[in-house]
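ENTRY TYPE: paired fold submission
RECORD: A
CONTENT: sequence, then structure tokens
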Amino acid sequence: MIGLVGGVGSGKSCLARLLREKHPIQIVEGDSAGHLVLTEPAVKSQLRTAFGDDVFNSSGDVDRRRLGRLVFGATPEQVAARQKLEQIVHPRITEILRQQIEEAQSQPGQSQPRIAAIVLDAALMLETGWRDFCDRLVFIDTPIEQRMKRVGETRGWSREQLQSREESQFPLEQKRREADDVVDNSGDVQVALSQLETILSRVMGQTSR
């Protein structure tokens, strides 16, 4: 299994989807699991106890923007709130990811082609220990200005919002240092995709032995 890490807005998800268009891979997404967890009654109950009614909207759903303002950033209050949030949601997210990985690894039916590899796309790969799921960890190296442009266009974030998200994660230098491979996503995305395909071929060769 290949794990993707990088800065916020580095294009990890885009590259994973492009890879899936050309190869029989399965993508497991940490973000999707995180969103799912926030809809579960048991988790919502714990969040209400920990953070109060202010992080819920009028429909009783978690307001991710309000919650984000509490937990993303470097102030002592935000760090403490983030740790509290992680204690609530990370164990459950880990369960979901493990289940999705096991399902992807199971023998497919006759109508489903066998997958060549699993790609785990999770922002907090190193922080949570999900790196242990992976055979190889790939750092997607994308310049800050490109990442800023991407999150501005797709998420409407300011530079301060991007910075606050990155302050809640391991430094980019650490992510790069702990990765087994680096993909340069500073130019043509097809060039970056080709680099990722080379890594996929290497992983497939190792797992087929």
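RECORD: B
CONTENT: sequence, then structure tokens
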Amino acid sequence: MNDFVLPDFFEITPDLVCIAGKDGFLKKANPAVVNRLGYSEAELYSRPLTAFMHPGDVEITMMNRAKLLNGEVLHNFCNRYISKSGDIVWLEWTSVYITGKEIVFAIAKDITGRKKTEMEVLDQYKKYKGLATHFKTSIENDRKYFAYELHEELAQLVSVINMDVGWLNLYVPGLPDKVKERIEHASTVSRLLIKTIQRLAFSISPQMLHDLGLNVTMEWLCNEFSILHNISCTYESNCDESEMTKEMQIDFFRICQESLSDILNHEEAGNIAISITDTGEQVALLIQDSGNGFITSLEKQKNGFNSIYERAKSINGRVSLQHNSGGGAVISIIVEKKYNGALPLP
């Protein structure tokens, strides 16, 4: 046992072990390095390590190497190398700089298999994410067409009827009072019908969202909700919506629509406050209800919450629903900017 010395570990370990100088050249590499990269020791020692790296990883590697030389231990740093046969090799490094000897001691694990699996999973995710986005876009386009037909066709026809009814009142003399009353009633109903059609068209697909943006549309939605239902509903945002994808804007709007609809299903709703906040790394949508309508409605009607949850997940958002200690509840949807287009959050 005493004869089993440190050099034996260096030679037989399956991990890639290297000793490099401050100049970036290898001083020593164990057989695992030679076997995995396919270069001879002479080839490995004749050129700087960056010569064997994937060009796309050189910059980030040099940035981390600078930290290493300043005394920071490097843990689980991943980069790619190109073997002599042309294969891409993924290595995960733990490195330390020994100041007195001006050398870097580094151990790496070959994680190429794991990375290939991750990329396959990511490719599949992107495929299904693309299909989901396609279906959502298709549905939104259908909504937009239907809303256009409601607003531009049906509402126009009702407007013509309203004009004809008004014409009767103006140009047909001697009408009995009862007939005039019915004409006025028909005119009032037709105006109400036009407003109802306009609200339905907005609910189905708000053209305002496409023309004026999310913030203006959300302000209108909250104001309209307050007027129609006599429930205070406010909106605040510090978010630059130009940095949000159209998909995110539409989903945030739909989540707010769904939430307000769920709130109305319960008579204990309080004041509503909606906000969108950009913290630099995250975009957070918060919907707060000072009463109990929101939390009670969502707990009783899981379909409504599932719809919110699925929409949030489709844009890689985290969803939470919490009771406030002083009463009421808040639902939050938080989207990490760094996960834009990546795998969904757990």
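NOTES ON RECORD B: Residues 341-346 have pLDDT under 50 and may be disordered. Residues 112-205 form one domain.
STATUS: closed
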